[in-house]
């Protein structure tokens, strides 16, 4: 049957008719064609007809033949394992015979079909494919050579891993030297294919390529001046990747490579220039960057700055000539999906870091969100940003003369690029820019009312990059004028400016925090007015600005007049949105922040909000069960609905405190949480652990009966590979232990305050009589993992702090169980908690530490200096805690004697020595 297969003429005409109809613009025609094609898939030889039209019907027009091939490709993707042998052999045979078709479109379609079959695990079952394609490369016929190369390039892209495995007997050992021969081919298309094929194997450091790395690099250099843009682009791409994986081979030629990349970054072809511009981004990550680039900085800086101007195409795409578009509804395709970041519990620092900072590596330079494509402007700006972070103020020598010219330029396009440059260098060159900011910030604030919308929008972004400095100055000088103008821009008549202003204002809110309190009425007035003005996309950003405001000013928002302004529009949107509308995500996030800030002020709104969140969780869980049991009928649910609802419930619990008790009593939230805590998706578990901790604090009487079920689950989630899940589970364990041990702790503290440093036998006796707390049965489930986490290298700061606090709290309520391990964690424990502000969590943790030291003084002896340092980190401990510190310090001093204590304390840094002497008299 293989090659003798002949189509039935009537069947062939029917299929051709279908292919013609499917090109009709009419959607109902397309739909009926789609149904007929699905029916035809029932016939085994339908796919023979499709390959026949593609490869044999040379009289048909090319679009119809190509379409036939693309439908066949989709069938291969969906049903290949069900093709009878004869059919798949016929298709493979036809593909190899027609890879050199005279039409570039048909050659490309055949190439795509070959690759799709290969990617279905067929490289093993089609052993003649690669040798045959490699053989066809040597064909005298250009079409055959180009077609075979096109197919090989696609196979290299799709199946790079399997090509470098023993499974196929390492074909790359033959293929890579073969590809290198074609770098000098007379046809630019072939040269380009050859480089693109080899490029697929650079990042993975494929052995076959590494053996030929020197001839590869030589060949690349030989092609550096190629007249074909596609070849130059692939040469640049290769050099960028080699910079990452084989810097050693490029270093001897680095001067010439940098000079070459400088030329290419200014290439007439923007695709080549963009590929070359990536070189500077990659080089900035290499330790040798400063050394190899410093001599070229004077040339590179103007090139990057020049690349930051909008191109004509950018302006057309951005509708840069349209100033007023606020009334035009958004195109729904332009609204990017938003991903909710689950709630992470973090400690308060002097600097306010959190796990979010550690995990959030988003690029801050996305000033052109609506051109989602990465372009030369964005790449140049990002490169300038990272280089500013490498060279710091040294870069200003080259930038400042250019900036002077750009920022005050009469032509708006040039002025706009200057404002972008100023924003791009903000992070790296902040110190050196400070002397110029008193002049520049007022100039930028003026630019906020420029007549060109693109100038106004970039100015919003650049000013947000300097918000930290603005907030550090007297508020009337810069903050007030900046805030006033930004609020006007939030109500701009251009949607792009509205978006940029809203985002910039959110950044300003984060920096200014309570500095904004005097202006709250004015700010809320503007934000609430924007509700009636904004189209869909910007409404989502507005929610974010309101949520950030609530996070930044906290309880200052809880005033009847503010609540009266803010809540009605939010609740109106809340009522308009259906449960399956993804716009609920940003609105729920926003309400979560607002509920936390308003505290009791949110009470009038809490019941319907609480109930809907519980329903969202219940609905999603029910949907997930249906999908598991009947996947053919039910799609997997979008669990983001559940995650965001859990986070809003956390916000309610945190904001309302004990007032949430009745709502919890009347709902099945704890049963639902038990399911969420075991969900496969880490983010669901992360949010459910945060909610567990918040409910434990707000209404422990409802959580307590479930502890026996919850604790083993928390124990199994102490896995630091999933930082945020582990962090929230750790924090929840700490909250539970404090609540479980409350009564025991009060008695124990009184006892410790009346003991000396060395424990009398009667305390041991007392502890065993008291039998610890109700937490005792659970300590061994979690303690070992917590001690491992706190000793683990490179653990993020937030997780270390929460782990230390939880160990301290466990030691507070179950000292006999935890104290024997004191020596294993005391040093990292003390260093983790010395940087966080005085607060309730730090207080309970240190009480735990003191209790454990009293039970096991030997456990602290070797690391006593760390304990002293941690004690000194307290600004203002409560009197009884200060008394505990005093007892332990003096107990230790008495134990070792004055002379030894003097020698010991001589090792202290002077500030520590002075602080302990002043506060504790040691």
Write the layout of secondary structure elements.
Elements: H1 9-21, H2 27-40, H3 46-55, H4 62-79, H5 85-97, H6 104-122, H7 129-136, H8 142-158, H9 160-163, H10 172-181, H11 188-199, H12 207-210, H13 213-222, H14 229-245, H15 247-250, H16 254-264, H17 270-284, H18 289-293, H19 297-307, H20 312-317, H21 355-359, H22 376-391, H23 396-407, H24 412-424, H25 430-433, H26 437-447, H27 453-465, H28 467-472, H29 479-490, H30 495-512, H31 520-533, H32 536-553, H33 560-576, H34 584-598, H35 603-629, H36 640-656, H37 661-665, H38 669-676, H39 682-698, H40 700-703, H41 707-716, H42 723-740, H43 742-753, H44 761-770, H45 776-790, H46 797-813, H47 815-818, H48 822-833, H49 840-855, H50 858-861, H51 864-872, H52 879-896, H53 898-905, H54 910-920
Highlighted features:
mainly alpha
Could you explain the architecture of this structure?
With 922 residues, the chain is mainly α. Helix content is 69%, strand content 0%. It contains 54 helices and no strands. Helix 34 (584-598) packs parallel to helix 36 and helix 36 runs parallel beside helix 39. The termini are far apart. Mean pLDDT is 89; it is low at 351-364, 366-372, 757-762 and 768-772.
